[in-house]
Amino acid sequence: MLSLREPRNGRLVTITGPVRSGKTTHLEQLLNSASVIWDKGPNSNILLAKHPNDDVKSPGKVAGYDALETSSPDEIASHVTPNTEAVIISGINFYEDKSIVNLLQDLVLRNRRVYVAGHALDWNANPFPNMPAIMALSDDFIITKAPCMIDSCQLQATRSQKLEGESMRLCIKHHAFEGRPDHKHYLIDQIGGLEAFVGSMYASKTTVWRQKMKELSANRIDYEVFKWIKDKRYSERNKQYGLYDTGFIGFNNSDEKIPAVYIKTAEDMVRFIDGNTGIREIDERSAKRRLGHIFIDEGQFIEGIADVVRARVYQGYKFYITGLLRTAKMEPFGEIPKLLVLADSIDVMHGYCERCGREASESQKFTKMGDEWVPSDYYEDPIKPGGKEDDDEVVDRYEARCRHCIEIPNRPEPKYRFERYYPTVSLR
Ligand SMILES: [Zn+2]
Ligand SMILES: [Zn+2]
């Protein structure tokens, strides 16, 4: 259950799910927990806003509470005072102005707690314009769960659709749109989906992901693991790996290594799964397998991955993907944002800030300057796969940091220049 009685660092929580799946209930709980602490009215520490397209039957209200109704991020920003501790926005998916992303980021950087609620996907399972970027900025997610609204279907609804004028939440089996792929014949009893395992570097994303493999192995269910061809950590050094060769994935805290097939792009992975690589041994083996569980390591590096996942979940494939939520510049990383909007579950793993010990959501990058390691400049190249065990020639170093302690020299000034919020009310 959401409550404002949590650690008081700036953070963004996204509440998302299909239509009528209980997002407003979460906001109501949050607002109830807040109303016992703060006064309402102009001096309120809470700013509640909604988009005019959200819940049109209750103008100016969210879950019975008075809300600022506006489609303008600037107008929301103009209501932020030095006392504003939390900002809650309902119908976040309807904000088309890109400034909404700046607004959320700037609020969080200035130590506000921000909660946003809205659908990630439209009727055709395409993301609302700013939702991928908003989700990639988030520290935590609540994905609302409710059963499919088709009679007698007990499956979890993960998509939305308009049927005979009514907004419906549907499971992936009942969600229809033009160009929807057919179910793979041997996966007819399997419900496709995506589980995402994201976080900063050194957040043990892979360890939790590995548990999923162990569960499948215990039930003798076939799966395959893929990784990006340029990510050579844990594989034999000095060996040249080509497409579809097998390398390894290792873990920060153990000697265990698991084999993984090297791919360059998502298209390579599709050819492997479908038995169309042109390499006889691989294709003959693929034709005999009944592969329905796909693991992908460091998904931010795999080009085309979001489109493949979006289509293949309708065929019954289950994907398990790890990835870095943000780059070392605190910006969205590769196609991870587009995967987050498709995910049925998102595990966010946090490390600990190596400077202050609080929850770390960011990856601090350092560059070697002479004999010294210094925080990398904003205008340097993006993050590379690597870390503590990377090849000798890589001259970067990383550590986990919180938003307050990360240093990014020459990072552009924020659009909204809020004053930093300092807690004044003591919460028990
Ligand atoms: Zn259904
Ligand atoms: Zn810190």
Describe what this molecule looks like in 3D.
- It is a single chain.
- With 428 residues, the chain is α/β, with parallel strands linked by helices.
- The protein has two domains: 11-170, 3-Layer(aba) Sandwich (Rossmann fold); 185-401, P-loop containing nucleotide triphosphate hydrolases (Rossmann fold), CATH 3.40.50.
- Helices cover 19% and strands 25% of the residues.
- It has nine helices and 22 strands.
- It has helices at residues 23-35, 73-78, 99-109, 131-137, 205-218, 266-274, 280-288, 305-312, 336-340, and strands at residues 11-16, 46-50, 61-62, 65-66, 68-69, 86-90, 113-118, 140-143, 159-163, 166-170, 193-199, 224-228, 246-251, 254-263, 293-296, 318-324, 345-349, 351-352, 359-360, 362-369, 372-375, 396-401.
- Strands 13-14-12-15-16-11-17 form a seven-stranded mixed β-sheet. A six-stranded parallel β-sheet has the order 5-2-6-7-1-8, sandwiched between helices. A three-stranded antiparallel β-sheet has the order 21-20-22, with no helix packed on it.
- The protein is globular and about 65 Å long.
- The chain starts with 10 loop residues before the first strand and ends in a 27-residue tail after the last strand.
- Bound molecules: zinc ion (2 copies).
- Residues 148, 150, 153, 155, 170-171, 173-174 line the site of one zinc ion.
